[in-house]
User: What shape does this take?
Amino acid sequence: MKKLQSILMVLSTLCFAIPALADGGSGVVDLAPIGAGLGIALAAGLCGLGQGKATGSAVEALARNPGARAGIQLLLVLGLAFIESLTLFTLVIIFAKIK
Assistant: This one.
């Protein structure tokens, strides 16, 4: 694992060192789109995990107490809407930052 880590570190250093040290006259490398892609991927992935956890807990609660279906379903839909809004807010912020 240590050997793989050192190989990946050297490769990542080479990927960023070549554009920085190139004598092509091009100034700055714009890494904002890469950061935006990583940001939306992180937000979507973590929201997906949160939605899975919320849905699993709601199903377990329904299995334990089927009579409370209406209340659990209302809170589940409300919670899923709030979780999904986090991804949409991230998308809006990315579009606002990168023009």
